[in-house]
Amino acid sequence: MSRSVLFIEDDQRIRRAVAMALRADGFDVVEADTGEDGLFALAEREVGVVLLDLMLPDVDGFEVCRQIRRRSDVPVIMVTAKADSHDVVAGLEAGADDYVTKPFVPKELAARIRALLRRTATSTTARAPVMVGGLEISPERGVAIREGKVVNLTRTEFGLLCELAVEPGRVHTREELLERVWGYDYFGDERLVDVHIRRLRTKIEQDPAVPQVVTTVRGIGYRLAADPGPPAGD
Hints:
Blueprint: E1 4-8, H1 12-24, E2 28-32, H2 35-44, E3 49-53, H3 61-71, E4 76-80, H4 86-94, E5 98-101, H5 106-122, E6 130-132, E7 135-138, E8 143-146, E9 149-150, H6 155-165, E10 172-173, H7 174-182, H8 190-204, E11 214-217, E12 221-224
Parallel strand pairs: 1-2, 1-3, 3-4, 4-5
Antiparallel strand pairs: 6-7, 7-8, 8-9, 10-12, 11-12
């Protein structure tokens, strides 16, 4: 797996300090100080993780994330100023996999990057395909198929779907999903799970407002329906 990190950050002091800390931890860091330069760097080389500041001088981080998602499923960690701000949810909705808030501890950031890289390397562990409500989930092939077409999922969305598919019908708590999909056993925000479930539903459900494949068990978590019945309209 690639240990290369693309860090898109316009504040030179922060960018150089974080890049130095990550390099000391064994990562290869590519630096970019604008959104456009970051997108160009991503087009020029393969990286394992993108570390993306939301406040950029040209294209804002939300739009950069959306453009990354149009061309790549590389894991994206966004950098924001406030953990409780609207920016967190908006960034996750734009396609980010995780977030860190300023100021952050370089060792914790490195741990998050390693967790994402481990998950990326093991997310397609061979398992038999699962059929749920017209959706075929194939962990070994790394794809989900609906009505004969491959569903365009990010690595995190697909990993989340595969984790739910291990035991269709069983309720998975948010804590379990954070640990198994993101690799976080002591830090992590349950909003990561909720926003990714919401994004996943827009891609696999016939009506995301009335989910039949991935259902919510209020106060506990989520489950993949064991027998959701025929799709709506049939």
